[in-house]
Amino acid sequence: MSTFALVAELPLEVDGYTLKGLRAEVSSGFERLTTVVHLHGGGLEGVGEDVVYQAEDHVTLQAAGPVHDLAGHYTLAEFCRRVDELDLFPTAPEWEVSRLYRRWTFHSAGLDLALRQAGRSLHEALGRAPRPVTFVVSLRLGEPPSLAPIEHRLARYPTLRFKLDPTSSWTPELIDGLVATGAVDAVDFKSLYRGTVVDQAPDPVLYQRVVTAFPSAWIEDPDVLTPATATVLENEHDRITWDAAIHSIDDIEALPFPPRMVNLKPSRIGGLPKLFATYDYCAARGIGAYGGGQFELGPGRGQAQYLASLFHPDTPNDLAPPGYNVNDPPDGLPVSPLPAPGGAVGFRWPGD
Fold this sequence. Notes:
It is a single chain. The protein is α/β, with parallel strands linked by helices. The protein folds into 2 domains: 5-123, Enolase-like, N-terminal domain (Enolase-like, domain 1, 2-Layer Sandwich), CATH 3.30.390; 126-325, TIM Barrel. The chain has 13 helices and 12 strands. The protein has a 7-stranded parallel sheet with strand order 6-7-8-9-10-11-12. The protein has a 3-stranded antiparallel sheet with strand order 2-3-4. A hairpin with a 5-residue loop joins strand 2 and strand 3. The two termini are 30 Å apart.
């Protein structure tokens, strides 16, 4: 039986939904806006978090309010299909991928509400035992780059592990300092991004320095097509992983070579049936997975952590608690690994 089939027939009663906006200054130097969907039914509530990146898309969503008539009695599969029929954007989004993010928001809220109405937890419904979740903290080091963001966090949390975004401004001295920390588990070259503040052009000098300096680190989204960078990476394919390109099983099959590991962001896959099918596909083919965050500010991060606890708890999940993303992380944050969720009903991380 497929993973989605285990929850597809859950009954779901929906009366309506409300929206709540969240915002915070995050470490990548921008104000992050997200929107939480509160799906109501039978006196209970399910939640999902919209992680669309453009602030204006949240402004228009919240201004329009709950305009879609979702009231009714469904199975979870029927509710997902109903959501998929709707245009969830009052005005067209700047990025087409945003439609996947918002679809996931409503699907995840539907899953949470259906489980709560059934009095069941997600791991009980799936027949999987949750396990503690290993996580890394994803950071950029500023311009000009500095060790300060790493050193500041390690001073408070000496066991932290990191996924870093190398840039052409990284110097040999900076790289030596990073090596000395012994705390870098992954590097993200972001070669697949276009027209964003994090674009990194293929730079064979940078690639050679980083690949040599971190011989055990995972290498995410490098440029393997430009001849100069492809040459640097020709013996590193076993530790190359993919993130930005992965929206579906078709995207995995279209990669330049069969992957050993992929980053499966639930919001980027864009829906419960597709996400669970992708987990099944990877498991059947021995492809490892780890989870990734989208600068969630509310329950979306905990939901991604919950999925990681069930499907890939021991990999370098880019799912640090949100407190690590602020410029000055406070004391008292959870450390890796996060304890496995207990028996609470629904689709939420404990405490969310």
